[in-house]
Design goal:
Keywords: Cytoplasm, Methyltransferase, S-adenosyl-L-methionine, Transferase, tRNA processing. It is found in: Cytoplasm. It is an enzyme of class 2 (transferase). InterPro entries: Alpha/beta_knot_MTases (IPR029028), SpoU_MeTrfase (IPR001537), TrmL (IPR016914), tRNA_m1G_MTases_N (IPR029026). The chain contains 5 helices and 7 strands. It is of the alpha/beta class and 168 residues long. It has a single domain, classed as Alpha/beta knot, CATH 3.40.1280.10. A 7-stranded parallel β-sheet has the order 3-2-1-6-4-7-5. Strand 1, helix 1 and strand 2 form a beta-alpha-beta unit. Helix 1 packs parallel to helix 5. The protein is globular. The termini are close together.
Length: 168
């Protein structure tokens, strides 16, 4: 993985190791860094996590942080440490958003934040960042979408918007 991730994908208190493993595999595919905010609903050595990530898990650029504030600090250090001096730009994915994913203007190094499978993002985080909350469209009959499917869709929409993956 390169020193500068194309995107930063945050899973806030994820519950299901298989989803995290699948998202990790997608992060490898697009060159994104995966951030996991504790508490996690599984152990990092979970066989389910490794199975879902298949033989790609050793390539996942992954950092586990203790809480939301620690994440914000680490992302600030990481993104500003890349030499660009840019502040991180966050997008929060929630079914409670008013804006659709297609309305966002994604850029390299953006931070995509996803909530846990059972609770989503906390209301305090959603309210503090209402202008950058996004959702995927879905009919009323569906309560929620699978986290790995949602993360995959949003990552590839971001990559599509800024012109695809760089040549490696």
């Amino acid at each position: 993985m390169s020193a500068e991730p194309l995107l930063h994908v945050v899973l806030f208190e994820p519950d299901i190791p298989q989803n995290t493993g699948n998202i990790g595999r997608s992060c490898v595919a697009v060159g994104a860094k995966l951030w996991l905010v504790r508490p996690l609903g599984f152990l990092m050595d979970s066989r389910y996590l490794k199975r879902a990530g298949m033989d790609y898990w050793q390539h996942v650029d992954c950092e586990v942080v203790d809480d939301w504030d620690h994440l914000l600090t680490r992302l600030q250090e990481t993104i500003q440490g890349d030499g660009s001096g840019a502040a991180p730009r966050y997008w929060f994915l929630t079914k409670f958003a008013d804006k659709l994913v297609w309305e966002a203007k994604f850029a390299p190094c953006d931070v995509l934040v996803f909530g846990s499978e059972s609770r989503g993002l906390p209301e305090t985080i959603r309210e503090a960042n209402a202008e950058t909350c996004l959702k995927l469209p879905m009919r009323d009959h569906v309560r929620s979408l699978n986290l790995a499917s949602t993360a995959n869709t949003v990552m590839y929409e971001a990559v599509r918007q800024f012109g695809g993956l760089p040549e490696v």
